[in-house]
Amino acid sequence: MTQCSFHAPDPAELAEKARQGDVAAYGELVRATQAEVYAVVRRVMADREEARDAVQEVYLRAFRRLGTLRAAGAFDAWLRRIAVTTAIEMARRRRTTFLADPQVLSVPVLDEEETRWTEAQRQALARALLTLRPTDRRLCDRYYYGRASAPALAREDGCSEAAMRKRLQRIRDQLRK
Question: Rounded to two decimals, what is the model's pTM?
Answer without folding.
Answer: 0.51
